[in-house]
Amino acid sequence: MLSTALRKRLLKFRVERDWEQFHSPRTLSVALCVEAAELLEHFQWIGEADVKRQAVVHREEIAQEVADLAILLTYFAHDLGLDFETIVQRKLKINEQKYPIEKAKGSAKKYSEL
């Protein structure tokens, strides 16, 4: 997800501020949900037709929320010893099996409904 250098910089930032004491899987999970809700807030009361315009108008604020999510997810994965590349590749293989092209192409149905 992030380069090794950027990941190290984030972890150093956290250590320098002694914030690790506040970060457990639970607290980071809560923070991820809060930040995801803040991202969602940009689209909360608008119709589907206005989503693209909203994304353009509020691009910087949305980018800040995405960055917050990436930072928290980096801390979470690091603390649990999870390697993004490995776990994403594993999940992609699972999804390829659940959603074969011939059944899933153009469909928003869940794998159990295909």
Question: Quick one: CATH superfamily of the largest domain?
Answer: MazG-like
Number of helical stretches of at least 4 residues: 6
Order of H and E elements: HHHHHH
Give start-end ranges of low-pLDDT stretches: none
- What's the N-to-C terminus distance? 30 Å
Instruction: Give the biggest beta sheet.
Output: none
What class would the helix/strand composition place it in? mainly alpha
* Count of individual beta strands: 0
What is the top-level CATH class of the largest domain? Mainly Alpha
CATH architecture of the largest domain: Orthogonal Bundle
* Annotated CATH topology of the largest domain: Helix Hairpins
- Percent helix range: 55-70%
pLDDT averaged residue by residue: 96
Shape: globular
The multimeric state of the shown protein is: single chain
Write up what this structure looks like:
With 114 residues, this protein is an all-alpha fold. It folds into two domains: 1-82, MazG-like (Helix Hairpins, Orthogonal Bundle), CATH 1.10.287; 83-114, no CATH class. Helix content is 68%, strand content 0%. It is built from six helices and no strands. Helix 2 (25-41) runs antiparallel to helix 4 (59-79). The two termini are 30 Å apart.
